[in-house]
User: What shape does this take?
Amino acid sequence: MSAVFTRSAALIRPQLQRLRSPHSPFSPASLLAVFGVQSLRLPCASSRLSHHRQTAAAAAFTTSAIRAKNVTVTFIEPDGNEVKATGEEGTNLMELAHENDVDLEGACEGACACSTCHVILPDSIYDSLPEPSDEENDMLDLAFGLTDTSRLGCQVLLSPEMEGMRIKLPSATRNFYVDGAKPSHH
Amino acid sequence: MFSRSLRVLGARANRRALSACYLRTRCLSTTLNSQAEPVTNHNVPVGESIPAQSSVMPIYLDAQATTPLDPRVLDAMMPYMTENYGNPHSRTHKYGWETEKAVDIAREQIANLIGAHPKEIIFTSGATESNNTSIKGVARFYKGKKNHIITSQTEHKCILDSCRVLQEEGFEVTYLPVNKGGIIDLNELKAAIRPTTALVSIMAVNNEIGVIQDLKEIGKICHENRVFFHTDGAQAAGKIPLNVNDMNIDLMSISGHKLYGPKGVGALYVRRRPRVRLEPIITGGGQERGIRSGTVPSSLVVGMGAAAALSARELDYDYQHISKLSRRLVDGIQSRVSHVVRNGDPNHIYPGCVNLSFSFVEGESLLMALKNVALSSGSACTSASLEPSYVLRALGAEDDMAHSSIRFGLGRFTTESEVDYVVDNVQAHVNRLRDMSPLWEMHQEGIDIKSIQWSQH
Assistant: This one.
C-alpha cells in the first residue's frame, strides 16, 4: 500500500483481524472503523468477534463512541525511547501500542495465551486496577523481567484515570531475540 | 532366600519384617548361598562386631537422613525407566503425551497430600533446591520494597545458608531463637515482623530433634501481617497431616527421598491465590510455570507421586506404628540407662525422630560401638564436620551434651525386634563406655563436673 494509505492501513489492520471481515479493506464495518467510530472493547477475547460484528454496524447509531474520551499515555521502550500515544477510553494497551508503532509484540493477539505484551505499570495505577485473573497471572508467570506491577497489556483497558501514565516495557520477552531481531508486525 | 530370612528373624517375623528383610537382603541373594556365612541372630546382642567386608547390612535407624524406596514406589517407577521414556514436554507424539499424563497424575498425588491444587506444585531436584528457590526467589522478587526475612536458628543448613547469601546481597535476616524444647516463641515472631518483611521461613518438623512447630498459629500471624509463610516440610510431608489452606502456608518444600520415594526429586508448593511471585534460580524454557525450567524427570516424579499417595493413605497407620516403636525405644533406654536426656519438647515432637543425649559418653564413640546399627549423631549434613550440632546449641545444650547426642530415626519398615536389639546394645555399650569414662567416675564420687577448672594445653 502506498504511503497515503499507510496510516489508515495501520488503523484497519488490527480491526480487520478482530472482525475477520473479507479481504477487501472496504467492507462497511471496516470503513466505519476507519472514520474513528470504534466500539467499546470487552476484556474477554472470545466474545469480541461477535460483539464487534453487531456493534461496528450499530456504532454509527450510538453516540457512545463520540462521547468516549481520549487518553494520552507514554510508552517507555527498553532503549529509553519515549512514545506518546493517544487512544480512546477502552482500548487495551497492546492495541494502543500497535497503533503507535511501539515495540510491543502481541503474539496471541489478545487471547491471553502468551506473555509478549507484558508491560510494567506505575504503582498507583496498578493498585487501582482490579486484580488480574488466574489465567492472566499464569501467563505473567512466564514473562521475562516480571515485576510486582506487571500486567499483560492486552488485558488492561485505557481509562481516564490513566491520563499521563508512563508505561515501561520490559527489556525482553520470552522470545529469544538475543541477536537483536525484532518480531514482525502481524 | 526367604527361608533364610525367616530363620534370621525368628518365627515372629511379620509382614513388615519380611518386606524389611527383603529390602536388606535382596541384593545378597547371590552371595549368601555361595559364601555360607554364619547367620546372625539379631535377638541376642553380639559380642564381636561383624567384619567390615561382610555383606550383611546394619539395622537402619536413620530415617531422617533418607528412607528406603518402598517396593510399591519402584513398581510405579519401572515403566517410566524402561518403556515410557518420552520427554513430558514433547507435545507432538505419544511418548510425550503419556509421560505428561503420568507427571500430571503425580502432581495431583502430591497436591492431595498437602491439600493444594495440582497447578501449585512445582517439581524440583529436591528439598534443598525448593528451599533455595523459595527463599532467594521471593526475596529477590520483592527486593525493591521488602528487604527483611525471618527464620529460626534451628532450620536446615540450606535455608540458613540461603539467608546468609541474601545477607551478602543486602537483605536483613532475623534468626529467631528457640526455647529449651526447640519451639519458637510466637510473641517474638510477632515482634520481629516489620512492614518490610518479605518472608517468614520456619520448618515444620526439625530433622535433628523432630520438634513440630505450631504451623497454624505461625500461618495466622503471617497472614494477618501480609507476609509470605514458607515452611520446609521435608520431614513433615507424609508423616504428619498438613493442609496448606488451614495453616496459611504460602510456600512449602517437599523431599522425595524422605517419603520412601526416590532421591533426586522434590517439590515446591507455590500458592496461586493470593499469588506468590518469585524470581526463578534456574531459568530456561519456562517449564514448571517458569519457576523451574528443565525437563521434569518423569520416572522420579512418578515415584514421588506414588510415594505421596501411599503416605497419604497410610499416614495414620504409619504414625501409630512409629509411635509404638518410639515409646518402646525411649522407655526401654530410659529405664535401663541413667542420665539420658531426650532433646526436644516431648509434647510437640514427631515420634519417628528420637534424639537422645547420653551424659559422660561421647556420641561418636557410641556410634562406632553400635556398629550393627546405622545411626546418626547430629544430622547427616554435618556428619563430615567437627562442629557440634547448631540445633542442639540453639536448644541451650552445653557442648558436652551436644557432642553426646545420637539420633534414632524410625520408619515405616522398622520392626520391634530391631528396636529391642538396639535398646539392648545401647545399654551394653553405654555402660561399657561409662566404665571407661573418667568424668563418669568423678560424677559417681560426687564431684560437680561444672565446677572443675580445666587446664589449657
Summary: The radius of gyration of chain B is 23 Å.
